[in-house]
Amino acid sequence: MSYLSPLALAVGLLLVVALVLVLTRYRRSVVCVTTLHSELTALRRALLRDPLTGLANRPGLTQAWTRVAPARPWVAVIDLDGFKPVNDTHGHAAGDIVLTTIAARLRTISDTAARLGGDEFAALIDGPDPTAVAHRIAQVIAAPIPLPTGTTVTVTASIGLAPSAGDLPAALADADAAMYRAKTTRVDVVVFDPRRDDHTTPAPDTRPAVRVRDLTPVTVTSPAIPAPSADLL
């Protein structure tokens, strides 16, 4: 019967320990990489989503556009009417409920809906009758919205529609111009007409003006410091 020498036994034990350490570190590395990948995926998804409603934000809408652009969907810009009184009367929490409810209703009609900011939304509409789909959006938005207090509130929508020709920013600008006309004429849905809708001169008082911080540099002149008196020298 042969026996292992103490040296061979020690070397064997060291090799086993080393192998265990390597496998443990490998397992930890795999877990770390998997966790990091999951976190990066979640972060990437968050960067494309509106945190309140869960709809796509502007970058998310742009990414979605790259998938559906070959079908040349119509673009709808949706602005809520009567939203500010909800905030003023019932508080911002009620306003958030309205926005999330509108977002949920938009999902039932459009697979690609986005919140552009504030109370303005957008949707990509694919199908033979985009105007009919836009009217459906207006109808579901106008349905009463219950609040936790037992009160119900109602908002409506002004919707501008524009066809797309492979250029999302241009289609959004056209739809936004049509939406201004919908607001001024109090019509639910308006289709962009280049002869009637102006991108740069919306009718007065239809939407709040954008306030821009004055970035003009101001020169600050330091007060003159009098020379020390001779008595102090």
Q: How would you characterize the overall build of this protein?
A:
The chain is of the alpha+beta class and 233 residues long. It has helices spanning 6-47, 58-68, 83-90, 92-107, 130-142, 168-185, and strands spanning 74-81, 112-117, 120-125, 145-146, 152-153, 156-162, 189-191. The strands form 2 sheets. A 5-stranded mixed sheet has the order 2-3-1-6-7, with helices on both faces. A hairpin with a 5-residue loop joins β4 and β5. α3 runs antiparallel to α4 (92-107). It starts with 5 loop residues before the first helix and ends in a 42-residue tail after the last strand. Residues 201-225 and 228-233 have low confidence and may be disordered.
Essential attributes:
233 residues, alpha+beta, two-stranded antiparallel sheet, 6 helices, 7 strands, disordered C terminus
